[in-house]
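Appendix B, record 7
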Amino acid sequence: MLGPVILAASRSDKMRRLISAAPVTKPVVDRFIPGETVDQVVPIIKDLTAKGLELTMDVVGEDITTPEQAAAARDAYLALVDHLKELDLGTRAETSVKLSMFGQALEGGHELALANVRPVVEAAAAIGTTVTLDAEDHTTLDSMFAIHEELRKDFPQTGCVIQAYLFRTEADARRLAESGSRVRVVKGAYKEPAEVAYQQKAETDKAYVRILKILMEGEGYPMIGSHDPRIISIAQELARKAGRKLDEYEFQMLYGIRSDEHLRLAAEGHRMRVYTAYGTDWYGYFMRRLAEKPANLLFFARSILTKG
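Structure tokens (predicted):
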């Protein structure tokens, strides 16, 4: 029941000011967001890849209100790709983007977002890596999938994200599994109405497994975005039954959550990719991490109590 409350707080300017001003907030945020600039996260990238992990990098920020801000977001990702080029990691370090950052919600936003994201996808391809389009609330998905389809005409390795709690997602998974695309499946972290999404965790979990089965039995490359031990175990079994080799799917988890599990899966030979966000506009991202998992909220609350 706390999830919807936290998600509502993520859209509140008053709560943003209150939480941002709390002395305890920064050290807690640092657990999930290890830096504000590319230079600050480069050592993190080097450390994680040295441990056998892979990464997908996210420049946080979604509250774009002008075309100039959208262009600045594009430039921030181009700067990130320039740094990844210097590290020469290939697909071991990719990027994840939210099309809202590229102007999707503005007037003419579909065309604007496509125009802004394309140079990022081109730059990523030029250094041997790729981009995954993150899913946002259900009203944005038709546009996201259309942009994904358009980008894949020239860059077929472009990935996308689907959310298990939405009723539409099983159909989306079947379409994407047939296309051979890269698909990350997550449970979902936005407040959605009962008309379009499951409201109970148990129903979402069941849908997740059904969707994962579709992807594992399809022709695409499944990316399992989950920290849930049960889901991870089921994914391994579904992959085995589908005859998939260890390099024909991957696990993805957030930076700062279950780090020991990251290393365990990598040690077993799995591809384990760490979703690593950085930037100054961290509030919305941070609040959704709290909403997704009660343990994250307990961690934050405990920090407040112990820090005073």
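Remarks on this record: The beta strands are 54-59, 93-97, 131-133, 159-163, 182-186, 221-225, 250-254, 272-278. Residues 170 and 211 are 6 Å apart (CA to CA).
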